[in-house]
Amino acid sequence: MRWSSLLIPTLREDPAEAEAVSHRLMIRSGLVRQLAAGIYCYLPLGHRILDKINTIIREEMNRIGGQEITLPAIHPAELWQQTGRWAEIGEEMFRLKDRGRRDMCLGMTHEEIIAWLAAKEIRSYRELPQIWYQIQVKFRDEARPKSGVLRTREFLMKDSYSLDVDEEGLRQSYALHKEAYGRIFERCGLTFYVVESDPGMMGGAGSHEFMAPSPAGEDEVALCGSCGYAANIELAASRPALPTFPSWSSLEEIPTPGARTIEEVSTFLQIDPRLTLKTLMVMTGDGPLLCLLRGDQQLHERKVQHLVGPFRPAHRDEVKEFTGVEVGFLGPLNLELPLLADEALAEGVYVAGANREGTHLRGVVPGKHVRARYADIHRVQAGEACVKCGGLVTVEPVIEVGNIFQLGTRYSTALKAVYLDERGQERPIVMGSYGIGPARIAAAAIEQSHDRDGAIWPSSIAPFQIHLVTVNVKDAAMRSLGEELYRSLAAAHVEMLYDDRDERPGVKFKDADLLGIPYRVTVGSRAIKDGQVEIRNRRTKADSMVPVADTVPHIQALLSRTDGK
Ligand code: ATP
Ligand code: MG
To answer: How confident is the model at residue 204 (pLDDT cuts 50, 70, 90)?
Structure first.
């Protein structure tokens, strides 16, 4: 296709509002434009990239027996009320009323609709298993739409759903999806981890996320280099390394005037912060609760929430009201409040608050002095030990590109999606649900593959394979050679963008680097003088000169060798 007839509005400057690399480059290379916060238009090149990704997704979904369908984007409230999610989900759901004042919502996912459809259409075990999928728009009124297309309020999702007769069937459908997802991300040229994840609002037994490592990611994963343990930080576990414990044999009050924070206390006493114990008061549905953690550890909100339900940190005056103690000197001894301690504290001897202003207590052995419920409530930090093998754990920022869930029967029970088994007994269909964000794949690909000059697209999802440039279209000989090459490459079905614009060479080359199409073929003065065109590999920036007459077979050979990266 000719650049001169396409809409490719490239920009020289970085857009002011964009921080993530992918955001900057997608705007600068004219792939997308923002209509409103988290709402984007895809221009021709952006559309081509999504289309490539969707094709790969379709091929892999079809390969595991998926059947493509299209479900409505607007849903009646009743279905969401029947599963309880109408009330459970808050402001993230776009809600509206139709002219008859009936409640409706814009679909943020489609479990309810699938269960409704299965309830209508599936009768017998003979019709199972089924895998249904769609590539369709979703709406979520995200609290912080940012980073370009990584988190938007309207976005494309490939969502699929498996319907099985039992848990064993679900495990098989889940395994099929896990493999298909691996192939999809591999074919899209992404580096990724498969990690254990928290099912969250979906509910259900187990789930995995597919995570593309990138500094732009909003999620974090904990990884063990030794045994391959990999989990979202939202549920990851670790064993913090133990410090050498001193031989503090009895409880001793020590003055610590003005030292409130862990840093202040450990500096003042000249001890390892890992020998301190911090006491944090939170307010739960049942009232105040004291959470105990080693000084160097952070409270993991989700883990605590799983144990005690919703909670919030206590205010300064609430701490004073329930304990009579100033924040900074709170400790676990002699208070009539329930205690939840991190399991790392089960061993060792610590310095803790003494529940008296300006004073700490040395020699606290939680295992002996504190009656607490012990559980894992700390956030994994790099350098801790793996719970599976003792290996070293690292923590990395990642972009979630896909998520798979074993749902079980929550939705089928609520919406009466049942089948008759071999003995004629009615049983709920066992469901799985599987999502992928094509736009996130595109953005993650840029995050993982770019340089100072622009994107470097994996060839499998690049908008074009070849970027043909005629350096000076005002030069009649050069122009006609460019046109001739364009025709012969097109005749050989090479997917190509032809920069036939009347622009300065510098502009054309900068644009070519910015777009990041895998190979640039340049028709310049050497083509006229020596009959040679220059072929540049966008990734390595290596140039080679090829005789004009050999260009087509040379390019065909290059493209057939490309392995997706
Ligand atoms: P996140 O935790 O990032 O909000 P999620 O867990 O809510 O995502 P899922 O419901 O699992 O997302 O959706 C499946 C896939 O859809 C995600 O893995 C991601 O690729 C994509 N996706 C989800 N939310 C968005 C969004 N706001 N913008 C773009 N893509 C999204
Ligand atoms: Mg998710």
So the answer is: low
Q: Which residue has the tokens 């690909």?
A: 445
Give the model confidence (pLDDT) of 543-560 as tens digits. Answer: 999 999 999 999 999 999
What are the φ/ψ torsions at residue 101 (nearest 5 degrees)?
A: 65, 20
Cα–Cα distance for residue pair 254/276, rounded to 1 Å: 13
Question: What is the pLDDT of the chain when averaged over all its residues?
Answer: 95
d(CA 289, CA 301) in angstroms, rounded, equals 13
Task: Give 109 Cα–ligand 1 centroid separation in angstroms.
Answer: 10
139 CA distance to ligand 1 middle (Å): 11
Name residues whose C-beta falls within 8 Å of residue 280's C-beta, 6 or more positions apart in sequence. 290, 291, 292, 293, 299, 313, 330
Residue 364 CA to residue 352 CA, distance in Å, equals 7
> Strand, coil or helix: what is 293?
strand
Task: Quickly tell me which residue has 């289309």 as its tokens.
Answer: 51
**So what's the pLDDT on residue 54?**
98
- Which residue's CA is minimally distant from atom 29 of ligand 1? 151
Could you tell me which of 88, 83, 139, 68 has the C-alpha nearest to residue 115?
Answer: 83
Domains in the chain, start-ordered, CATH in brackets? 3-236+395-446 (3.30.930.10), 252-375 (3.90.960.10), 464-561 (3.40.50.800)
Is residue 232 within 8 Å of 221, Cβ to Cβ? yes
Work out which ligand 1 atom sits closest to the CA atom of 202: 10
Q: For ligand 1, atom 30, which residue shows the shortest CA distance? A: 437
Q: What phi, psi does 36 have (nearest 5°)? A: -155, 175
Say how far apart CA 228 and CA 387 lie, in whole Å. Answer: 11
Contact at 8 Å (CB) between 554 and 500?
Answer: no
What's the 402 CA to ligand 2 centre distance in angstroms?
Answer: 7
How many other CB atoms sit within 10 Å of the CB of residue 306? 14
Q: For residue 288, what are the contacts with CB-CB under 8 A and spacing of at least 6?
A: 281, 282, 314, 318, 322, 337, 338
Cα–Cα distance, 333 to 479 (Å, whole number): 85
Residue type, 215: P
CB atoms near residue 17 (< 10 Å):
11
Q: Write out residues with Cβ below 6 Å of ligand 1.
A: 109, 140, 142, 151-152, 155, 157, 400-403, 435-437, 439-440
Structure tokens given for 261: 């924070």
Q: Are strands 39-42 and 32-36 parallel, antiparallel or unpaired?
A: antiparallel
Of 448, 378, 385, the closest CA to residue 233 belongs to: 378
| Contact assessment for residue 344 and residue 297, using Cβ atoms and an 8 Å cutoff | yes
On whether the CB atoms of residues 57 and 158 are closer than 8 A, the answer is yes
What's the pTM? 0.91
Taking ligand 2, which is a single-atom ion, which protein residues have CB atoms under 5 Å away?
403
Protein residue closest via CA to atom 12 of ligand 1: 403
